[in-house]
Amino acid sequence: MKFNVKVPATTANFGSGFDAVGMALKFYNELEIKTGYKNNTGNILTIEGEGRDKLPKNDKNIIIKSMAEACKCANRNPVSVLKGLEIKMINRIPLARGMGSSAAAIVSGLVAANHMLDNRLSSYDLLNIANRLEGHPDNVAPALFGGVCISVLDGSDVKCIKIRPPVELDFIVCVPQFELSTQKARKILPENVSLKNAVFNLSRASLLVGALAYRQYNLLSLATQDKLHQPFRRKLVPGMEEAFKKAVASGSLAVFLSGSGPTLMAIAEKKACKSKIIGQSMSKAFKSKNINSFVHVLSVDSIGAKVNA
Ligand code: HSE
Fold first, then answer.
1. Which residues are CB-neighbours of 303 under 8 A, at least 6 positions away?
2. Which residues contact 181 (CB under 8 A, 6 or more apart)?
């Protein structure tokens, strides 16, 4: 058997929707899998692109761990299902930048294993396993389903709804050349928030969902404002405030930290033709802090993880 799994990058939080709102982007990692390696004995894992010199190429790799977890949840022995695999990871999503690289790895492993298990697990089984492995649902849900996903934890069970993908928008990602682990960016957040700040965010996150669903893009600037995570993470991302100001001055509809950062995400209507200039303005702001960055102008991915057999 030979097949390929393609999984999108994702942006989480969308400003105000901390740990709840996420969106898939047309920017992909791929897995190529062949079974029957060396008459079904060992495994071989190769990595091309991001993380090729850094990520483990053995059972400690998150892809293999996710595949094993899917087998266990489907009541199959991982040792017998996962033997003799030739796995090639083609990584384009940069690591530890807030673009959902770990979610993409987890989801690709789960989807690949489920394909080998004749899709015994439902999409919602996969979402719940992925959330357990990742620790929060807002990247893994859009990585699996595509589009904009609103996820809620009901105990340990994830409920998720996918809303109309905002296809008229450009998503301008400015990726600075330094890593920031989600673990570090979560540690800096306070345990408790005031009622005032909770209301600030929940009203804006609700507005955000309405603004996206009803194409009221003029409301995105207000709807993406946040007091739960960005003010605390600012000190981990030098140049963030300056880049936000530049993006707004260059005509973006909204700008926020992508996931836990350090990538910044600006939004513009495609028809406004301002996306390139917005990207350059954010990159310049990082440069003024001696930080190099690269920019991608991306669209929403509406499909999510996909197997090509
Ligand atoms: N919601 C998560 C966080 C996303 O902000 O910590 C991490 O990519």
1. 8, 24, 146
2. 96
List b or e across 144-169, with b for residues whose CB sees 16 or more CB atoms inside 10 angstroms.
bbbbbbbbeeeeeebebebbebbeeb
CB 12 less than 6 A from any atom of ligand 1: yes
CATH 3.40.50.300 fits 2-164+301-308, yes or no: no
Q: How far is the CA of 168 from the centre of ligand 1 (A)?
A: 25
CA distances from 189 to 66, 135, 235, 264 (A): 28, 16, 12, 18
Q: Whose CA is nearest to atom 1 of ligand 1?
A: 19
Q: How far is the CA of 83 from the centre of ligand 1 (A)?
A: 34
Residues in the chain, how many? 309
User: What single letter denotes the amino acid at residue 34?
Assistant: K
Quote the CA–CA distance of 142 and 136 in Å, as a whole number. 12
Pairing of strands 21-35, 2-12: antiparallel
pLDDT digits 0-9 by tens, 116-141: 999 999 999 999 999 999 999 999 99
- Superfamily of structural domain 169-298: GHMP kinase, C-terminal domain (3.30.70.890)
In degrees, to the nearest 5, what angle opens at C-alpha 56 toward C-alphas 105 and 115? 40
CA of 236 to the centre of ligand 1 (A): 14
Q: Domain-by-domain residue ranges, the chain?
A: 2-164+301-308, 169-298
pLDDT single digits (tens) 64-123: 999 999 999 999 999 888 888 999 999 999 999 999 999 999 999 999 999 999 999 999
- Give the position of tokens 């920019």: 295
Our mutation pick for probing the ligand 1 site, out of 23, 97, 134, 136, counting the most ligand atoms within 8 A of Cβ, is: 136
